[in-house]
């Protein structure tokens, strides 16, 4: 039950924030909004304020903002609207801004979530305390021992294990000076990393400098001020965007197999599992899913926001709209592609579920 509620709340928040982006920018630019809906199909509950219907609809597979003139110039204006409010009559830059606002708000949501988490809970990661030292490794030969607390590398302080590994990987194999706290005594140890084959996040084999140590598993939390949390949240959001883009490119290149593609069932499972681990886990997952949703919607595929942005961009370049014929053809192709992609994702979800 807890997992089901978490799934509903997370998906609802993602859809709401995405559509809120379209709505806010449309209203700021003076575009008329006929309806703001969470879900599709028949209305369950709702109310009307001004000229806009706000409603919760039956099918919870998305949402929409219905703009005046969205399907073309309307001859018969609905009551309360003016011709100047028509989306179709707006310059392409305005239309592009309204469309792009949805995905951008997904990135903003991820930033807000991470900002809040870092401010409330601080930044948490593994502490750079050595747990294991591999036999005959560069670390063992240099004299590093289990229990050593690495405080700096080449004079640069390290607080988290991740910071230490980044400095090692960026060394390109040159000798590094490790400052170690051992039994409350500070010791300097020179270690020359060795190039070794490793597997990256995408399952690819890469060569990277390593010293041959493992973490003891200690966790450290660094409190963050409001401003520090804001900056760290933004940096983490950019990092999620970067990693997600890399993953999408790797899928296209077939470096990542297609059977790793997931859909709504996998998302529901992840959120449900995260709910068992606590609110923090659910919020981190929400931020990651929000970034994915924003990027996918920016794909230059008709039907998606990215397709509309592409059409507006072409209109700005060639000073005329893309012909209706090509819009229809590319929209049909886009729908076919999305149906096949969704079919693949659901097939993978079901295969993982039952295998």
Can I get a quick summary?
The chain is of the alpha+beta class and 355 residues long. Helices cover 50% and strands 23% of the residues. It has two domains: 103-122 and 225-355, no CATH class; 124-222, Roll (Pdz3 Domain), CATH 2.30.42.10.
Per-chain topology:
Elements: H1 2-28, E1 33-49, E2 52-67, H2 92-121, E3 123-126, E4 130-133, H3 138-142, E5 149-153, E6 156-157, H4 161-169, E7 176-182, E8 185-191, E9 194-199, E10 205-210, E11 213-215, E12 219-222, H5 226-252, H6 264-277, H7 279-297, H8 305-318, H9 324-354
Antiparallel strand pairs: 1-2, 3-12, 4-11, 5-6, 5-7, 7-8, 9-10
Number of strands: 12
The main β sheet shows up as:
4 strands, antiparallel
Strand order of the largest sheet: 6-5-7-8
Distance between the termini: 24 Å
**How many distinct domains?**
2
- What count of helical segments does DSSP give? 9
User: Segments where pLDDT lies below 50 for 5+ residues?
Assistant: none
Portion in strands: 15-25%
Instruction: Briefly note the structural class of the backbone.
Output: alpha+beta
Strand/helix succession: HEEHEEHEEHEEEEEEHHHHH
Radius of gyration: 25 Å
**Based on the structure, what is the oligomeric state of the protein chains?**
single chain
What percent of the residues sit in helical stretches (DSSP H or I)? 40-55%
Instruction: Report the mean per-residue pLDDT as an integer.
Output: 88
Task: Describe the fold and architecture.
There is one protein chain. With 355 residues, the chain is of the alpha+beta class. The chain folds into 2 domains: 151 residues, no CATH class; 99 residues, PDZ domain (Pdz3 Domain). It contains 9 helices and 12 strands. The strands form 5 sheets. A 4-stranded antiparallel sheet has the order 6-5-7-8. A two-stranded antiparallel sheet has the order 1-2. A hairpin with a 2-residue loop joins β5 and β6. It is elongated. The two termini are 24 Å apart. Belongs to the peptidase M50B family.
């Amino acid at each position: 039950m807890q997992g089901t509620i978490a799934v509903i709340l997370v998906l609802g928040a993602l859809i709401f924030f995405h559509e809120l982006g379209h709505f806010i920018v449309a209203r700021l630019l003076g575009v008329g909004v006929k309806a703001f809906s969470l879900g599709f199909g028949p209305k369950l509950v709702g109310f009307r304020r001004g000229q806009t219907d706000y409603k919760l609809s039956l099918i919870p597979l998305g949402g929409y903002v219905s703009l005046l003139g969205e399907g073309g110039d309307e001859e018969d204006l609905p009551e309360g609207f003016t011709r100047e409010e028509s989306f179709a009559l707006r310059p392409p830059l305005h239309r592009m801004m309204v469309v792009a606002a949805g995905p951008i708000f997904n990135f903003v949501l991820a930033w807000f979530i991470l900002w809040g988490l870092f401010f409330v809970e601080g930044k948490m990661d593994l502490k750079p305390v050595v747990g294991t030292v591999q036999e005959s490794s560069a670390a063992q030969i240099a004299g590093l021992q289990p229990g050593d607390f690495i405080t700096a590398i080449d004079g640069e302080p390290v607080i988290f294990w991740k910071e230490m590994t980044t400095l090692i990987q960026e060394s390109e194999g040159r000798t590094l000076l490790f400052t170690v706290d051992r039994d409350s005594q500070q010791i300097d140890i020179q270690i020359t990393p060795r190039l070794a084959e490793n597997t990256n996040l995408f399952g690819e084999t890469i060569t990277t400098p390593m010293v041959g140590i493992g973490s003891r598993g200690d966790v450290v939390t660094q409190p963050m001020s409001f401003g520090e949390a804001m900056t760290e949240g933004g940096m983490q959001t950019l990092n999620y965007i970067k990693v997600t883009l890399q993953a999408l490119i790797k899928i296209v290149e077939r470096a990542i197999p297609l059977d790793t593609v997931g859909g709504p069932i996998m998302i529901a499972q992840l959120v449900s599992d995260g709910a068992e681990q606590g609110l923090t886990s659910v919020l981190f997952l929400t931020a990651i899913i929000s970034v994915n949703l924003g990027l996918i919607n920016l794909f230059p595929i008709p039907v998606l926001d990215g397709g509309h942005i592409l059409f507006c961009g072409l209109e700005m370049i060639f000073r005329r709209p893309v012909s209706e014929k090509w819009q229809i053809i590319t929209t049909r192709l886009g729908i076919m592609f999305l149906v096949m992609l969704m079919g693949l994702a659901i097939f993978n979800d079901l295969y993982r579920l039952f295998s």
